Amino acid sequence: MAVKKFDITYNDFNPSVFYVTKHKMVNDGIIHDHDYVEIAYILSGKGRYHVDGKEFDVTAGDLVICNPGVKHTHIVSNPKEPTIEFISGFTDFHFMNMAPNSIELPNDSHILHTTGELKQEITKHCYAMIAEKELKQIGRYFMLKAHLMQILLMVIREISDVDKTEQKSCNFETYNKNYVVNRIINYLNENYEHKISLEQIAHNMYLSPVYISKIFKEETGESPINYLIKIRLEKAREILQNSESGSIKSIANQVGYDDVYHFSKLFKKYYGISPLHYRKQVKDSIANE
Predict the structure, then answer these.
(1) Looking at 40-44, 167-171, 192-196, which range is the least confident one?
(2) What is the DSSP letter of 192?
């Protein structure tokens, strides 16, 4: 069945929950990452978070989102008022215009500040999940999943509302926007194997990089560079499916990447598996047919 335009996921929304916990953060953490999403919701107190090389102040109502591969840790800023945090790790979901198993906030942020009704609702679901974990009643896992799904949907709705507000403030002429974006998409599809930058695209079209980035995201929901990444990775996946020979480095080169490590990291981020293991998976699937 075709996905309707108002759906927010690519597939059935059925995340797998690894853990839920509540912690009082009295000591600094150790920088680490996961191959799944981890969220930390600040229930009370004040602190700091180190995420992806940057530090952020956090307080009650802040939701810290650490996507797969993003290095992070918590930092105690005031021992007399440490944060009490709800933490959960999960995977197996895919929201529209986002990488699989990722929650991408506007402006590449890692912190969502919640207030009012949204803050109250998320807090309520966090405490409900903590209670479910402790009571150990029948169907506990499914109750945890149900609460988590509601939190995620509220977050996505909040992000979507922000995007709609930002789009309404723009007054670019629709026809011109469509024309420019379609030209960019065609250019990316025809030249993905070459080095491409936003500045180069802007120069070729006699437009500013800021203008191009803004209208492209309005029309497609993502930046030109993210769109290019998806084109390249999809082409790479096709090559891996149809060819049993050739090194991962040569495939990376064919789709525009000189750095095979960077290519492999992107591939795993988007598809949840490394190119090497994806090829093995395809081979095993063919062998078992």
Answers:
(1) 167-171
(2) T
Q: How far apart are CA 61 and CA 44, in angstroms?
A: 8
- The fold of 16-167 is Jelly Rolls (2.60.120)
Domains in the chain: boundaries: 16-167, 174-287
Long-range contacts: 221-224, Cβ < 8 Å, 24+?
221/96, 221/97, 221/163, 222/97, 223/198, 224/184, 224/188, 224/198
> H or E stretch including 131?
helix 116-135
The pair of structure tokens assigned to 74 is 């918590």
CB 93 within 8 A of CB 14: yes
pLDDT at 209: 84
Backbone Cα Rg of the chain: 21
Q: Which two tokens stand for residue 258?
A: 């000189």
What's residue 287's pLDDT?
Answer: 59
CATH hierarchy code of domain 174-287: 1.10.10.60
